[in-house]
């Protein structure tokens, strides 16, 4: 759960966000006042002072429908800050609270739009309108429709959620938001080595999930597996080198890997698969042309992979430099003879 200070910071950000929407609320308030005024004219309350235009009677239902839409828009804008403050106390993360608000708003608007269409045209006209409009939309707006279907698929199956670290459409990063048309990703990697944020916000069309799929690094567990490869000379003490790598990994990720065994049970799609995961630091050894390659495999939290990798590598280099009979292999040339 979030700490009290973190919760206060979120609440402060929520109110700042509400203030940023003040202009939108004023705009919809003005439109709502105008619609109410037209409704009053329709009731002939002001007939002794103002004559009611015929258009007000002709578009009676349309004015009422607009009043409903404007009222719902204002109501949602007003409860938005309060909803986030209350929701963050029931969800584990701010991202989950934000995602629940998006689902709630889409559900409300679907109900409002269907209700307005029924009010304006009745059941028969609604069916005819939906048929004609659907045919036109499918033909003209194929890509947006695929994006909307992708959004429904992502939201219903939870392929990824806000806050997850994913790779989709050749882009990798943390999901900042999921709209009907796009998935917004805070990009990592690209021109930077390691899982480092570039500062760019990437908008990936939702339909890409059908084309390339999505790799989710944090869906079933916050842990992923990583490795550090070290090449040592054939003349080195290989057992000592292996032990150094093991000791370093245990020192850096040993405590975290004690909980990996439980996480593996969540990640295993069938019981036999659980036995195939590495649940403790392990070193694999293989021979290369001019060196012995030792690969240390360990588990760490996805968002900390670059930091952990760097820490383990630095400590291995330090320990190797302090050991006389362990030498790192690197390309070099031996000159035999006097060179003439």
Task: Write structural notes for this entry.
- There is one protein chain.
- The protein has 340 residues and is an alpha+beta fold.
- It folds into 3 domains: 4-137, no CATH class; 157-216, Roll (SH3 type barrels), CATH 2.30.30; 223-321, Alpha-Beta Plaits.
- It is 55% helix and 17% strand.
- It is built from 11 helices and 8 strands.
- It has helices spanning 4-20, 22-42, 54-58, 60-87, 94-140, 142-157, 208-211, 238-257, 260-267, 271-274, 305-321; strands at 165-168, 171-178, 182-188, 197-205, 214-216, 223-232, 282-287, 292-301.
- The strands form 2 sheets. The protein has a 5-stranded antiparallel beta sheet. The protein has a 3-stranded antiparallel beta sheet with strand order 6-8-7, with helices on one face.
- The longest helix is centred in the middle third of the chain and has 47 residues, at 94-140.
Terminal Cα span? 73 Å
Which regions are unreliable across 5 or more consecutive residues at pLDDT < 50? 10-20
Structural class: alpha+beta
Order of helices and strands: HHHHHHEEEEHEEHHHEEH
Q: How many distinct domains? A: 3
Radius of gyration: 30 Å
Strand content: 15-25%
Number of strands: 8
């Amino acid at each position: 759960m979030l700490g009290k200070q973190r919760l206060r910071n979120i609440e402060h950000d929520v109110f700042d966000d509400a203030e940023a929407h003040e202009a939108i609320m004023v705009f919809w308030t003005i439109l709502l006042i105008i619609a109410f005024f037209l409704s009053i004219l329709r009731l002939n309350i002001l007939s002794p002072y103002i004559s009611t235009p015929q258009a007000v009677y002709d578009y009676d239902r349309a004015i009422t429908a607009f009043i409903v839409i404007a009222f719902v828009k204002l109501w949602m804008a007003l409860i938005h800050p309060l909803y986030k403050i209350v929701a963050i106390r029931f969800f584990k993360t701010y991202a989950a609270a934000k995602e629940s608000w998006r689902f709630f708003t889409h559900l409300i608007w679907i109900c409002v739009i269907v209700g307005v269409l029924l009010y304006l045209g009745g059941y028969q006209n609604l069916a005819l309108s939906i048929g004609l409009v659907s045919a036109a939309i499918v033909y003209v707006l194929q890509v947006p429709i695929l994006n909307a279907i992708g959004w429904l698929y992502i939201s219903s199956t939870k392929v990824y959620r806000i806050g997850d670290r994913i790779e989709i459409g050749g882009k990798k990063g943390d999901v900042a938001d999921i709209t009907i048309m796009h998935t917004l990703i805070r990009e990592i990697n690209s021109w930077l080595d390691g899982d480092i944020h570039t500062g760019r916000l990437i908008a990936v069309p939702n339909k890409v999930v059908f084309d390339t799929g999505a790799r989710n690094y944090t869906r079933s567990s916050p842990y992923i597996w990583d490795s550090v490869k070290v090449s040592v000379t054939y003349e080195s003490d290989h057992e000592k080198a292996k032990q150094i790598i093991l000791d370093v990994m245990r020192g850096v990720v040993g405590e975290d890997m004690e909980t990996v065994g439980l996480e593996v049970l969540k990640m295993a799609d069938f019981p036999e698969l659980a036995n195939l995961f590495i649940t403790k630091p392990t070193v694999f050894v293989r021979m290369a042309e001019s060196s012995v390659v030792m690969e240390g495999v360990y588990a760490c939290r996805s968002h900390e992979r670059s930091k952990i990798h760097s820490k383990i590598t630095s400590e291995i280099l330090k320990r190797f430099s302090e050991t006389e009979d362990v030498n790192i292999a690197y390309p070099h040339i031996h000159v035999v003879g006097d060179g003439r």
